[in-house]
Design a protein that fits this description.
Family: Belongs to the aldehyde dehydrogenase family.
Structural class: alpha/beta
Number of helices: 15
Organism: Halalkalibacter suaedae
Keywords: Oxidoreductase
GO molecular function: lactaldehyde dehydrogenase (NAD+) activity
Pfam families: Aldedh (PF00171)
Helix content: 25-40%
Strand content: 15-25%
Radius of gyration: 23 Å
Oligomer: single chain
Length: 476
Amino acid sequence: MEWVKEKMLVGGTWRKGVQSLAVYDPESGKKIAEVPAATKDDVQTAVFSAKNGAAINKKLPIHERSRILQDTAAYINTHFEVFVHTIISESSKTIKEARKEVHRCIETLRLSAEESKRLQGETIPFSQIPGHENRVGYVCRDPIGVVAAITPFNDPLNLVAHKIGPAIAAGNSVIVKPSTLTPLSTIRLAEAFLHAGLPAEILSVITGKGSEICDVLVQHEDVRFVSFTGGYETGRSILEKAGVKKTAMELGSNSPTIILADSNMEEAVAATVAGAFGVAGQNCISVQRIYVIDSIYSEFIKQYTKETKKLKIGSKIDENTDIGPMISEKEASRVENWILEAESAGAELCCGGKRVGAFLEPTVLTNVPDCALISKEEVFGPVVIINPVSSFNQAIELANDSRFGLQAGLFTSSIDLAFQAIERLDFGAVMINDSSDVRIDSMPFGGVKHSGIGREGVRYSIEAMTERKVVAFRLN
C-alpha cells in the first residue's frame, strides 16, 4: 500500500472515522492518503472538548502560551523537509513555493508568540464626565472562547497557522476544518503543537466534507468566533447560518495592477509575471487584471509575453520548475473553459491556454471584454488579462469596477499620482511600484466589498479573537 491512513484530532484524541476520504497528488492523480470523514457527532465532541480547552488556555500564563508557540515553530524548523514534502504531495506548490510556505509558517507562529505578550488594554478617564470624579477604570481583553477555523487548499500550512497561532496566543481553543483536498499539512501542524506541550483539548482538527459538518460547527452556540478563508458564496452562506457571533471572512478577489507610462517597465513586467503565475495563479491576491497606458501598451505586451514564455511548467519536485499543476484536473478544465469563453467574446490569446490534465499553461489574454466571466470573477488559475487604458482616471475606474476589493498594485514614478491612487482605489491594500501580490504575515490583511470582513495578520487576528471588558472602581 503506497498511501497512508491518517487520523484526525478530536477532543484530544487521535481517532479514525467510520468512513474515509481520499487525498490525491494533483500532479500524478495518485491517491496518497486517506483521512477520516468526520460526522456531526465528531463535531459535537470537538466543540465540547474545545469548551474545556478554552477554559484551560485562559488560565495558562502568557509566557506558557508563548513558549508553546515558539516550541511549535522550532519543531517545524527541525522537521522542515517533512513539512515541505507534505505540502508538495497534496497541493499545487512547487518545491520552491513549499519551502517558502514553511518558512512563513514558522514566522507566523513566532509572531504569534511575540504578540501574545503585547495584548494590552487602556485606562479610561472617568472624571471627564461630571459626577464620575471618584471612579477609575480600564479596558482589558478576554479570550473569546472557542474559535472555528475553516481553511482552503492553496496555502495548506501557513493559512492554518494564521488561525491557530493567534487563537492560542489570545487564550482561546480552536477547531480547524481544513480543505478536503489538502488536510495532511494541518494534521502535521497539530502534531507539532502537541509535541510542544499544548494541552490536547485546546486544538482539534476535524477532516471531512464541509457540506456535512460545517453547518453544525458554525451554528453551534459554544463556537464564539468563525474564521473562514475561501469563496464568496460559501462565506455568505456561513454568515447567514452562524448567527450572532464574531466572524472573519477572507473571500478572494480579482486583483488589478495599473502600469503608467512613467513606470519602470522591466520591474513592472517582472513583478506582475511573478504575481500572476505563482502557485499556478491559485492565490487570492494573484494579479488577474493589468491596465496599461496605451502609449506603452504594445511594448508592455511584447515584454510580458516574452517573460511568460520563459516560465517552466513541470514536476513540483524539480528545482527548476516555475509552475506546477492546478489543484485538480476539474479546476484546470474550468479555467480552460473560461479562457475559451473569453476568446469567443473577442479576447485575444497572446500565449498559453493549453491544458494537459491538471497542468494549464500560463495564459495571457488581451482586449478582454467586460462581459467575459474571466473579467468579472476570481479566476484562481494561471491567467492574466492585459487591457489598454487611455488615462490614469480610466485605469482607476476600471480597477474599481469590481465587486471585489482585496489588494491592488500601481507602477509609477509620480508621487502625486501614487497618492491619488491610494485615495481613490477601493481596496484593502494598495501596493506602489509593486503588484497586488504582496503580503507579509504581520500586516493587516483583508479587503472591502465582496472580498471579506475583518483583517487577518497575527496582531489583528489576536485582537479580533478577544473581547474588550470594561472595569470600573468607585473610590470612597
